[in-house]
C-alpha cells in the first residue's frame, strides 16, 4: 500500500450529514447537494495533476503559483455558480449547503494534491494520520459566502510532524485563496479536556463534520465526546447557552425590531436558531427538525415555521455577503433596497418594495423569537422539574400548581399561568383574552404549554370574538394594566393574538418605515410608547419628566391615554396621511373597546393631532405670542392639552435611544406652561413671570460658589426665553463655559462627547451677526459632520451662544475628539476671516445616503404664523453642508434671521427660520416670496450643494438669534 493510500480521502460525499442524520433543513431540500454546474472536481484534480507533472518534467520551475491560480479560478467560478442558483431559486439553506459542499471539495482537492505531489516521499506512520474536520457553523454543513472557515486538524498524537506540515500546507493555500480560517491542531485527548472547560470549544466540537482524512480518529472523537463530555451535562450546557443568548440580546438592545438588524447575531436572527439547534442536539440527542416533533417540542406547523424561517434568513444573509463581497451581517439602510430587489420584492400601495421586504424580515424574526422562546421555556420548565434531591423536592412543593381565584380554567404552574385542559379555549374563546388579563392581574409570566395552545387556537379569534363585549373589556384591562401592560401586550403580539383581535394592528405588525429616524418597527414603537406611559404612571420618571408625572395622576380618565398611544400610528403604511386615517380607525375601534362617544372623539383627536405639539415646540418660536395663540386654538381645552402633552412625550421617547433629550423636554414644558393660562382663562398655577423668577433663582442657587457680583452680572446676560427653555443642568454648564471664556475673549469653543447617544456637542461663544448660523454650519460641513440639532441664544452683550449637536462619526473617543477639534478650528478660521466657505467646504461635499431616500423638497413662506416676522419653513433630504447653504441663501436674499429652529428626523430636515427684511419688516412682496421659494428650492435640489456668494466676514448686525 502506498503512503497516499494510508490517508486515502473519503469519496466526494455530496450529502451533508450530522452524525448520520440529515441536518435541520426543509424536507424538500433533504436531497443530494450536487456540485453539478458548480465545480467539476475531476477536471480540477486533473488540471492540478498536470501542473505537477510539468514540474516533474522540468517544464515549469515553480508549480505553486499555477496551482493557486487554478484554484482561484475554481473558487470564483464555483461561487458565481452558487450565486446564480440562489437568484434562480432563492433557497437560502440550500445555498449555504452548496457553499459548504464547494468548500469541502476544495479542501479535499488541496489535501489530495499535497499527499500526491508534495509529501509523496514521506512515510506516514499510524501516529501521523490526521483527520480534517469542519467545526462550528461550517461543521453544521452550512456556509455563508463571507463566513470564516473553521477547521480542526485532529492529530492521532502530539508528535505528528508530517501531519502538522500537511495542515500548514492546507492553511497557507486557503489563506492565499482569500479565506479567513479559524483553525486548531489537537489530539482527541486535548479536544476532550478543552471541551470540558470551555463552552465555546464544546459548542464548536458539537457541530463537526469529517471533510477528509483518517475516519478512525474522527470516530474516536465522536465516541469519547459523547461519553465523556455530553452525557449528564445537559443542564449546565443549557444554562450556558441561555446566558450567552441573553448577553447577546442585551448588546443588540434586547429587541428583534431594530430597523437595521443584525441578521446573524441580532434577536430573532440566525444565531437564535443556532442556539436552539445546539440545545436540541445536546439535550435531546437529535439532529433533525422531525426529531423535535417526535420529542414533543414542536408541532408539525412549528417545525414548518422553523425551517421556513431558517431558509429565509439564510437567503438574506447569503445575498448580503454576495452583494458586499464580505461578511456583512448588519442589514443596513444602504443594503435593504438592494437585498429587496435581489429577493424580488415589488412596490405596494402605501409601502415601498424595501418596506415590504423588511416587514417580511421582521415577521420571520418574530417567528424565530416565538419558537426559540417556547423551546427554551420548555427546557427551563423541564430543568425545574428535574432538580435533584431535597432542593428539587422543596422547589416542587413551592411551584406545584396553584389555583387562581375566579377561574377554573387556569392555574399557576411554576410561577407561570397555565391551562388546566386542552379544550380551555375551544370551550370558551374569550379565554384567549382572559388568560392575558389574569396574568396581568397576578403579575405572572406564561407557561410554554399555554403559549403553544394559544398559537394553535388562533382560528378561534373570529368576528364574533372581536365584537364580544366581555373580550373587549378584558383587552382594555390588559391595555391599561397598572403594573406592566407592555409585557402582556407584547406576549399577545408574539403569539399572534393582538393582530387577530385587532386586525388594524395586525396590518402594522413587523412593519418598518424606511427612514433613519425610527429605530423600531411600528408595532414595537406602539408597545414601547405604552410602556413609557406605564413608567410615568408608576412614578419611575419623576426626575426626568416632572410635568408628565404631575399630570397623569390627576387625569379624569387615564384609559384615554393608553388607547390613544396604542392607536396613534396604527394607520402607518397607508397611501393617505396616517394621522387622519388613524383617527378614522380610532372612531371605529373605541366604541368596540367600550368607550363612549365623548371619549371616542377625544381619542380620535389625539391620534389625528399627535404630532402637533412636538412640531410646534421644536419648529416654532415659543417666544412669539402668535405661536402660543395658534397652538391654543388648535388644542381648545386644558384637558386636551394635558392629554396631548403626555402622548407627545411617550411618542418621542419610544422612537429610539437618544431621540429624547432634556432640550426637547424643556421645549415641551415651555409650550405647555405658556399655553395653559390661555386655555384656563388666565388662571395658571405659576405665571410666566413667576416661572422666570424661579428659574433665575434656581440657576443662582446652582452658582452659589460664584461671588455675588459675578453671579448677578451673569444672570443679566441672558434674555428670559433662555431661562424658560434650557434645562437647568445645561444652564450651569453654559455658565461655566462662558465664565472660562471671560469678557475679553470674543471667540471660544468647547467640546463634549456622548458615546451612549452617539452624538458630540460643540459650544461656540462668538460675536453675533446675521451669517453666524451659516458660518457655523459651514464649519461642520467642512469636516463632513451632520448637525442633528442646534440651539442659538443671543446674549445682552452682543455675543451669541450656539450649542450644536452633531452625529458621532467614530467609535474611538480620541478620533471623535480630533474631528470635533477640527470643526472648532474651522469655526475659528471662518469667523476670523482666515478662510472662506467655498474653500472649506469644497472638498467635503457629499450626499448622505441620498440615493436611498426620497424626500420631496418643500418650501413654505408664511406670514400668518407670527405678527412680527415672516416664517420660512424648509423641508427636504439632509446632506452635508445643507444648513450652511440654506442660511447662506437666506442671507444672500437680504433677509435677517431672527430665530432659527433646526430639526433633523433621520435623513429628513424640517427647518424653520423667522426672518425680516433689512429694515425689520415682514416680507410681503409676492415677487420677493417667489424669489425666496425659487432660491431655496434650488438649494434643496442641488445634490452637491452651493456655497454662498458672500464669503467674507460680514459686519455685525443689531439683530441676532433669540433662540433656536
Automatic annotation (TrEMBL):
GO biological process: regulation of nitrogen utilization
GO terms for MF: [protein-PII] uridylyltransferase activity; phosphoric diester hydrolase activity
Limits of the ACT domain: 761-838, 871-950
Regulation: Uridylyltransferase (UTase) activity is inhibited by glutamine, while glutamine activates uridylyl-removing (UR) activity.
Keywords: Hydrolase, Magnesium, Multifunctional enzyme, Nucleotidyltransferase, Repeat, Transferase
Cross-referenced InterPro entries: ACT-like_dom_sf, ACT_dom, HD/PDEase_dom, HD_domain, NT_sf, PII_UdlTrfase/GS_AdlTrfase, Polymerase_NTP_transf_dom, UTase/UR
Protein name per UniProt: Bifunctional uridylyltransferase/uridylyl-removing enzyme
Notes on the domains: Has four distinct domains: an N-terminal nucleotidyltransferase (NT) domain responsible for UTase activity, a central HD domain that encodes UR activity, and two C-terminal ACT domains that seem to have a role in glutamine sensing.
Swiss-Prot/TrEMBL cofactor(s): Mg(2+)
Region feature (Uridylyltransferase): 1-403
Source species of the chain: Fulvimarina pelagi HTCC2506
Name of a matching Pfam family: NTP_transf_2
The gene coding this protein: glnD
